[in-house]
Amino acid sequence: MESDPPSINFGTQEALHHVRSLTDVGAMTRLLHECIAYQRTLDLNLDSLLSQRSDLDKHLSSLQKSSQVLEIVKSDADHVLSNVSSTCDLADHVSAKVRELDLAQSRVNSTLLRLDAIVERTNCIDGVKQALDAQAYESAAKFVQRFIQIESEYRDSGSEQRDQLMESKKLLESIVKKKLNAAVDQRDHMNVLRFIRLYTPLGIEEEGLQAYVSYLRKVIGMRSRLEFEHLMELMEQKSNQSQQVNFVGCLTNLFKDIVLAIEENDEILRGLCGEDGIVYAICELQEECDSRGSMVLKKYMEYRRLPKLSSEINAQNMSLLDVGVAGVGNEGPDPREVELILEEILSLMQLGEDYTEFMVSKIKGLSNVDPDLAPRATKSFRSGSFSKVVQDITGFYVILEGFFMVENVRKAIRIDEHVPDSLTTSMVDDVFYVLQSCLRRAISTLNISSVIAVLSGASSLLSNEYHEALQQKMREPNLGAKLFLGGVGVQKTGTEIATVLNNMDVSSEYVLKLKHEIEEQCLEVFPAPADREKVKSCLSELGDMSNTFKQALNAGLEQLVATVTPRIRPVLDNVATISYELSEAEYAENEVNDPWVQRLLHAVETNAAWLQSLMTANNYDSFIHLIIEFLVKRLEVIMMQKRFSQLGGLQLDRDCRALVSHFSSMTQRTVRDKFARLTQMATILNLEKVSEILDFWGENSGPMTWRLTPAEVRRVLGLRVDFKSEAIAALKL
């Protein structure tokens, strides 16, 4: 164990002063012991140092030998330094000579290249002349291109040679342009390609681009003009119905020619002016599309008399508004002919949209285009004359589609009839098929304005004429008397009533399906947030219509229940005469001979169950639940007026279970919640004593949710003949 360190630092002046100042013998003795311990420590350290002497002597001897070796190394290092210095001087001298030689060599090479250039320029001048004489225009263009390259490298060349070649270049340009024009006039495509390729080596790429695009435009214009003239001939031959006037095919060929002109000539256009050349060609050919395409669409509107048709439809609508009754006034166009026109318009609009989308994506897919050129080219597709005519035809489409939709919905309502093996009449499927078809066609136009207009028209039809048609049958007077004519259910009247209710139920479901389908399709077709908001706003009206149909359905079901319940009420009135103050013998007798439950269930089965096969599952479930609500409310009132023994409470519990079990088999929905209050009353009336209610109340209720208020619980407890009112009043609920 190491000794504690001394209290003073021995061997210093401070320690000596401290010793001299001591007067206490005990302190002196303690300091003496510390001094002796310190001395022993010094002795141990000295012994340790002396024990290392032999090792230190060996190391010292080794270092002396190493010093001799270091002297030798120093001598060798000095010699190496001398050699390196002399070598460095020699290398610097040689490097300077090499640099001088390299400079001289580069000057010689430059001179040789310049001499070669002079010779090559001379060869180019001679080659151009010889090639022109031999009509080898490709070779002549290559000589010109090579001379221009040499000129760009050696700008100090003689002007005489340059003048000679520029004169030959002008001559070659003149010949190439004449040959190109001749090839264009003769529609000689191979020679057009031959001479257009010479514009690049001649350095007049922009002129070549303009000339070639002009040629493409002429070819497309000529083919389009021939097709258009053929259309005009067919239009004039009205008596010949064997050949249809195919405007869609004419427009398709125009778009196809433009697209192929861009795709097949991509290499040539890029070779002339890069990707800017492609954009320029697209813009120029789009002008041809604006001109020719507009003519086709205008002629189509004239051929199909779209302005006149629209005027007739608008006049008919005004006439109907004045008269106020559907089907009065001018008959208007034939909806079947209108449908054919709508399909044609849809095809034309889809063609235009597909073409525009392809060309715009083509422009956006180019990466090295002038920043100002691409937006201008893209804008030309949306603001050109073709786009404006498409907008006009879109306006006619909306009018025709609205007319077609209204007429067919009205026709479906007018010819409504019962369909064998169907729970609804023909009107429901027919109306929603028409609406679905019209809305799908509107979405296919890819025009948000068309979709909004048709969607608004569909909502208006559903909320007005269709809604009125659904409710018309329910307004028939003395419906209840007809349903149970002679005291039994009349199948025909029941079928009519059930069908009306089924129409409302299925219509509510169809509206939601239609809303969901249109919403999904619009999300795919219209990615813009603003467009989606417009669609969402219109679709919300369809959602409201579904709720409107459900409200009308509920009113109809309540009306039907009001017809059925008077036939069940006598059995319920009989329940009021049944006693629940039962002895054991009476309780046993009730178990064998049920006093009222089976008669009530039989009355329900007789007056309601026969309608199950005539109603939709949803309607029948709602119908049964409304009957249950009527029964439960009446039974609660009756039971609150009775007095109960404990066995009477058991009897009520058994009655409730029988009712729940039977009604659960009559409907697919749960009925336990309908009987919850009655069941809880039976539970309370089963208690052994008043205080047991606390085992089921408040925190002890477990999963059960009490439907009875504390006041109602006390009232039910008061129905027990053996419960004291003081104990009931003392409960803390």
Describe the structure.
The protein is mainly alpha-helical and 733 residues long. It is built from 26 helices and no strands. It has helices at 13-20, 25-51, 53-133, 137-153, 159-185, 189-196, 205-236, 247-264, 266-303, 306-323, 335-364, 373-383, 385-414, 426-444, 448-472, 479-483, 491-525, 529-564, 569-575, 584-592, 597-608, 617-639, 646-666, 676-685, 710-717, 725-729. Helix 8 runs antiparallel to helix 9 (266-303). It starts with 12 loop residues before the first helix and ends with a helix. Mean pLDDT is 85; it is low at 322-329.
Structural Rg? 54 Å
The overall pLDDT average reads: 85
Structural class: mainly alpha
Shape, per Cα inertia axes: flat
Low-confidence stretches: 322-329
Share of helix, binned: over 70%
Distance between the first and last residues' Cα: 80 Å
Number of helices: 26
In terms of topology, how is this protein built?
Blueprint: H1 13-20, H2 25-51, H3 53-133, H4 137-153, H5 159-185, H6 189-196, H7 205-236, H8 247-264, H9 266-303, H10 306-323, H11 335-364, H12 373-383, H13 385-414, H14 426-444, H15 448-472, H16 479-483, H17 491-525, H18 529-564, H19 569-575, H20 584-592, H21 597-608, H22 617-639, H23 646-666, H24 676-685, H25 710-717, H26 725-729
Helix pairs in contact: 3-4, 3-5, 4-5, 5-6, 7-8, 7-9, 8-9, 8-11, 9-12, 9-13, 10-13, 11-12, 11-13, 13-14, 13-15, 14-15, 14-17, 15-18, 17-18, 18-22, 23-24
